[in-house]
Design goal:
Helix content is 40%, strand content 18%. It is an alpha+beta fold and 322 residues long. The protein has two domains: 42-138, no CATH class; 177-307, no CATH class. Strands 4, 5, 6, 7, 8, 9 and 10 form a seven-stranded mixed beta sheet that branches. α7 (140-166) packs across α8 (177-196), α7 (140-166) packs across α9 (232-248) and α8 (177-196) packs across α9. The longest helix is centred in the middle third of the chain and has 27 residues, at 140-166. The two termini are 49 Å apart.
């Protein structure tokens, strides 16, 4: 982006007997128009929308002006473009190009979807409409899984947020049910990390919802003399999914894996029952991890892991919760 400084009141030059004829600094040295345009171009961000899978690519081939024939070749050209932009020191954001969302966007905006201009308009708004990442020169086969994972996380959070918002207010007390569940889930998470203490914590919350299984993952670094350090967006997603299970009083569960240097990893588990997290026994945690979910056949325990009972997570919440 270019910034133009508005003209102000000119300063009166200071007089001095030691004054010498001013020399033109390197900053003031005249530059060619081409050089100025290149300098300005480096201040203009770029956004690249990617059709991440074969299905989305096939959906776009219905448009005559979309001229790519096969997905692998398309991805190679995308990666070449990204590298070119990076070579020019341009800030580049990468997002997922969603054909269904693109069609809706064109219908709402009154655009013809079968034009490169319409695709450009949509791509320019990808950052605000969906998941995106900054391109820093990483290989595309490593970038795409990160981008897809971020998109799934965002969709999960949006769906869980919608479910909580649709619950409305309690008919008896007028309290916002979703808000109350979110606040309670926040307190549960903080208490869980407080009791877990020192170590690198990996938490997974799984909750069934009306249309899909909700899953949230959280990483935290615990210390003995300070609150756990966690990433804000991951924490918001985790709390929202847990709050959905609390508010809907569905089944579900939370698993905590703690890693400390020089010791085995510790696995703890809880089940969600009527809006409360109840600790699993060590045997139940072992069974959950060492049983094939599809076949029911036993699996070998993971080396260097201790399967532990969940610990009690007591909060100050009253018994009758929404």
């Amino acid at each position: 982006m270019a910034y133009i400084k508005q003209p102000g009141q000119p300063k009166r030059p200071r007089s001095s007997k030691h004054s010498k004829p001013s020399k033109q600094s390197s900053r003031q040295r005249p530059r060619s128009d081409a050089a100025l345009r290149r300098a300005l171009r480096r201040e203009v961000p770029s956004t690249v929308g990617i059709l991440a899978d074969e299905q989305d690519f096939t959906a776009m081939r219905q448009y005559r002006t979309f001229t790519f024939d096969d997905h692998p070749s398309y991805l190679r050209q995308i990666e070449a473009l990204l590298k070119t932009l990076a070579t020019g020191q341009l800030h580049t954001t990468v997002g997922l190009f969603d054909p269904d969302d693109f069609a809706e966007y064109c219908a709402e905006a009154g655009l013809d979807p079968d034009t490169a201009a319409s695709r450009s308009h949509y791509t320019a708004e990808i950052v605000g409409r969906g998941a995106s990442l900054a391109y820093t020169g990483q290989p595309l086969d490593g970038l795409l899984p990160q981008l897809i994972n971020k998109a799934v996380r965002q969709a999960t959070w949006e769906y869980a947020t919608m479910l909580l918002a649709d619950l409305g207010e309690c008919a008896d007390c007028g309290q916002d049910i979703g808000r109350a569940a979110f606040d309670r889930a926040s307190r549960i998470l903080m208490r869980l990390l407080e009791v877990a203490g020192r170590g690198r914590h990996h938490l997974v919350c799984s909750v069934p919802a009306p249309d899909e299984q909700l899953l949230a993952v959280l990483h935290a670094e615990g210390a003995t003399d300070a609150p756990a350090h966690l990433e804000a967006s991951e924490a918001a997603e985790f709390v929202t999914v847990l709050a959905t299970g609390i508010a809907l009083e569905t089944a579900g569960g939370v698993v905590l894996r703690t890693t400390t240097d020089g010791a085995p990893d510790h696995l703890h588990g809880w089940r969600l029952h009527q809006g409360r997290l109840l600790p699993l026994t060590a045997g139940e945690v072992f069974s959950a991890y060492c049983t094939d979910a599809a076949t029911g056949e036993p699996l070998s325990p993971e080396p260097g892991v201790e399967y532990c009972a969940g610990f009690d997570i007591t909060t100050d919440d009253p018994e009758n919760q929404h």
